[in-house]
Each structure stands twice: as structure tokens, then as C-alpha cells.
């Protein structure tokens, strides 16, 4: 991805210098894997999982926080995230303006181990997620190494950009009222039907990530050879079917909350090829 030498956003909070001694709030192991699978590319689910995290944290001693300087690698990562966020700000401000609306810019918070959010405490095991309560995206960048080593994604800078764009897609859904409508639609539904609505929300965020890529390529010529493959590899790795097959050896479609690998790749590419926000009604197509 061509990102160097371009505008960087001021809306990134880097809390990685606030070290907690390498310990997570929740701890790792099986519990961490369960939380990761529940919340990978967490979206609005960050809000639902947060109360669980809070209960688990109660009564546990918290490690002392230590301040340290960021490493050269961390500063490089920060510059990349700031550039990708600036690109999202530029694209979504343009799209909202074209539709006679104002875009409210979210913040991205980078952290290590654990973090306090408007949706409660969370650990790195939660995966990247968007908290609608404070309208911030939270990311431990170590997640992307897990994505490669545990879930078989190719990795690369554009895989990270895709994840950021997906989470910003959830912010767009919050601003447009889609997330609130989805939660209303889930009321009184069976678990399987409620899950289907969650899938639609997640796939729409993938679609918005594709729309962002389309606009950003036109405006800034960001794509290099292999970038789309990196995004599609990440989308494939976090499909519900791929995760379930890898972690439990069988697939339970009615428990899907984020969509299959093929669905996630399809909606990302539909957004990228069309560049038309009006073609992303995943709710209608999944009925």
C-alpha cells in the first residue's frame, strides 16, 4: 500500500506506551480464544461483550501501569494507522457530503494487553472492535500476527488497512442509524434469526471497507500489487466457517455472527467494484 508521505490524522490515541507489564486483563489460554472467536473484527459486538469482560475483571488485581517510550517499530505502525485513518476521514467525509450529511470523525485507540473503553474493559483477546458508546475503534496491532500464525492470513499492510476500514464501517453504521435499527430488529427473534441480522451488519461493514478502497484508489492511487489479495486473505481467515472448522472441527451455520469467508470476500469486492454505498443492503439480500 502506498501510504508514506501523505496526510496523517490527529485522531489516533496511542496508549501502547502505557505498559501493564505484559499481562492481559483477561488472561490468555482457552478463555482468550473464546473471546477472540466471539468478537473477531468485533464491530458492535464490542458493546455486547464488554459487560462480560467487566464481570470477569471484578475482583482481579490490576497490574501497575508503567510509562515508556514507543519503539521505532511502534512509531512506524502509528504513522501507518494515522495515514489510513486520514484516508478514511477523507473518503467518508466526501461520501457523506455527496449525500447531504455530515461525517463525524471517530478516534482510533492503539493499545497493548488491555484497555478501558466506553463499552467497558477489554483485552487484546477481544480482537479489533468499535465501541459505539464513545465512537472509537480499539486495536492491539499484535492481533495481525495472530491472524497470520493462527488463522492463516497472508498479512501485510493492506490487511491492516482493511480491518481498520471494516471497523470504521461500523462507525458509519452508527452515524446512519443502521446499528440501532438492527438491535431493534433482533428483539423477540430466535437466536438463529438474531445471528442472521448480526451477519448482515458485519457484511455491510465489509462492503463499506470495499467502498472506501474504491474511493481511496481513485483519489490517492494507494493500491500496489497484492494488496487486494491481502485484504481477501484476511476476510477469508475470519469467516465464521473458517474459524469454526479450524477451532472445533465442524461448522454450525446457525451460530454464524460475521458471515462465511466467501460472503465476507464477496461483499468487500462488491463495495470495491461498485463504489456505490447504496448497493450495500446486506439485510435485504440475506433474508
Automatic annotation (TrEMBL):
Q: Name one Pfam family in it.
A: Zn_peptidase
Question: Key word DNA repair present in the record?
Answer: no
Give the location in the cell.
Membrane
Entry-linked PANTHER family: INNER MEMBRANE PROTEIN (PTHR30168:SF0), PUTATIVE MEMBRANE PROTEIN YPFJ (PTHR30168)
What is the protein's given name? Neutral zinc metallopeptidase
According to its UniProt record, where is this protein mainly located? membrane
Where, by residue number, does the polypeptide cross the bilayer? 21-41
Superkingdom per UniProt: Bacteria
**Keyword terms of this UniProt record:** Membrane, Transmembrane, Transmembrane helix
Membrane topology type, per the record?
Single-pass membrane protein
Q: Which species expresses this protein natively?
A: Flavobacterium zubiriense
Amino acid at each position: 500500500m502506498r501510504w508514506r508521505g501523505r496526510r496523517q490524522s490527529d485522531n489516533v490515541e496511542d496508549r501502547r506506551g502505557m505498559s501493564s507489564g505484559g499481562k492481559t486483563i483477561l488472561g490468555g489460554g482457552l478463555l482468550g480464544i473464546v473471546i477472540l472467536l466471539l468478537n473477531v473484527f468485533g464491530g458492535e459486538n464490542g458493546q455486547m461483550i464488554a459487560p462480560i469482560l467487566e464481570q470477569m475483571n471484578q475482583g482481579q488485581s490490576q497490574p501497575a501501569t508503567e510509562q515508556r517510550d514507543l519503539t521505532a517499530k511502534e512509531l512506524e505502525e502509528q504513522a501507518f494507522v494515522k495515514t489510513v485513518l486520514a484516508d478514511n476521514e477523507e473518503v467518508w467525509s466526501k461520501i457523506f457530503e455527496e449525500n447531504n450529511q455530515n461525517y463525524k470523525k471517530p478516534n482510533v485507540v492503539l493499545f497493548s494487553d488491555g484497555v478501558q473503553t466506553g463499552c467497558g474493559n477489554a483485552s487484546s483477546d477481544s480482537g479489533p472492535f468499535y465501541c459505539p458508546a464513545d465512537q472509537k475503534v480499539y486495536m492491539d496491532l499484535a492481533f495481525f500476527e495472530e491472524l497470520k500464525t493462527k488463522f492463516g492470513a497472508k498479512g501485510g499492510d493492506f490487511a491492516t488497512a482493511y480491518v481498520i476500514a471494516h471497523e470504521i464501517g461500523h462507525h458509519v453504521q452508527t452515524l446512519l442509524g443502521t446499528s440501532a435499527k438492527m438491535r431493534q430488529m433482533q428483539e423477540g427473534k430466535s437466536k438463529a434469526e438474531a445471528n442472521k441480522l448480526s451477519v448482515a451488519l458485519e457484511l455491510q461493514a465489509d462492503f463499506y471497507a470495499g467502498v472506501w478502497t474504491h474511493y481511496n484508489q481513485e483519489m490517492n492511487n494507494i493500491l500496489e500489487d497484492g494488496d487486494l489479495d491481502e485484504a481477501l486473505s484476511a476476510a477469508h481467515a475470519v469467516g465464521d466457517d473458517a474459524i469454526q472448522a479450524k477451532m472445533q472441527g465442524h461448522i454450525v451455520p446457525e451460530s454464524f455472527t460475521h458471515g462465511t469467508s466467501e460472503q465476507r470476500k464477496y461483499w468487500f469486492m462488491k463495495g470495491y467494484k461498485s463504489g456505490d454505498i447504496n448497493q450495500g443492503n446486506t439485510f435485504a439480500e440475506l433474508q
